[in-house]
Amino acid sequence: MNISLTLLGDILSGLALIVGALSYFLGRRKTQTPVIAGFAACAALGHPAVRSCLSGCAAFQARRSLTVPSTGGQV
After folding, report:
1. Which long-range contacts (CB under 8 A, 24 or more apart) does 39-46 make?
2. Distance from C-alpha of 27 to C-alpha of 31, rounded to nearest angstrom
3. Residue 71 has what pLDDT?
4. What is the pLDDT of residues 46-63, one digit of tens each?
5. Phi and psi at residue 59, in whole multiples of 5°?
6. What is the C-alpha separation between 33 and 23, in angstroms, rounded?
7. What is the separation of C-alpha 29 from the centre of its chain, rounded to a whole number of angstroms?
8. What Rg, from alpha-carbon coordinates, does the chain have?
9. Contact (CB, 8 A) for 71 and 65
10. pTM for this entry
């Protein structure tokens, strides 16, 4: 079976875009720097150990609150 390196590069590039986008949207809910989370996931695409570490850290991190805390009636 002969696989072209161009086809393999296209597949990896597409996969990097998908993983980066998914990590960005997960990072929006869990971190204060979602762009860095997306780039880190793209960079870790070829390294299974780093990818597992990033996934574990993101999964066990508490969700960031998006609501404004109340002031208790004071202005």
Report:
1. 42/16, 45/12, 45/15, 45/16, 45/19, 46/12
2. 5
3. 62
4. 777 777 777 677 677 776
5. -70, -35
6. 11
7. 10
8. 18
9. no
10. 0.58
- What is the Cα–Cα distance from 32 to 70, expressed in whole angstroms? 21
Distance (Å, whole) CA 41 – CA 52: 10
Which residues 6+ apart lie within 8 Å of 55 measured at CB? none
**Alpha-helical segments (H) within 31-64:** 34-43, 48-60
Q: 57: which 2 tokens?
A: 């850290």
Q: What pLDDT sits at residue 66?
A: 56
Q: What is the dihedral of CA 2, 50, 20, 31, to 10 degrees?
A: 170
Q: Whose CA is closest to 26, among 58, 67, 62? A: 58
pLDDT of residue 54: 73
Q: Which residues of the chain have pLDDT under 50?
A: none
